[in-house]
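Hey,
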Amino acid sequence: MTNNSMTPFIIQDSDTNQDVKQTMYIEPFFSTPIGITQIDKALSKKILAFIKSKDMKLKRNVGGNSISSDLYILESDELSDTKKVLTDSINQYFKEIINPDEDVELYITNSWINVNKNGESHHLHKHTNSVVSVVFYIDTCEGDTISFRNQNCEVFGNLKFNNSPKTKWTVPEWDVQAFNNTLIIFPSSLLHLVKPRPNICTGTRISLSLNTWIKGDTWFAEGSPNQ
């Protein structure tokens, strides 16, 4: 068990009437796993070259940004190596979190390009019909982020505390900086959004998004005590 938070406090020993320093350990059980990893920049260059060579058509998305009309970008022969690298990274995350049988893995279903100019955003959403979703950042600036919504921020139900600073357990939303050549992996059910891109940014924010599904047997054997 990993002790992620230690809070010192003082109690009094009833036998000696002496103050005793104690430590309380707080464990982040039931947290949401978000994987972040760096990918070789050669993949970003390959995707950018692919976009330019195809004269990619874009369509307007909710929130003002644009996405590619092609929702199966990684099915192109030119990106087969890229697809393999991304698939391997996704399954590394999946196996770390789920620890499935050897014959169970994730595969990429649909994949598309996102384009955000300054001032454009992406609405709050989650990805249906998918197990794990991924964003791969190809071209970003320092002000680019992705925001995840905490659906369990009311840890103690409907209690509200005046002027209470937010902690990592009660914050309603968390921003993660979007760095070039970075892969962010998360459960598809997790709500997320992109806030309006700062006007100080140069260039255009470009990312690749994709969804996944399960390949293999996920059911318990008949008669299993875990059913």
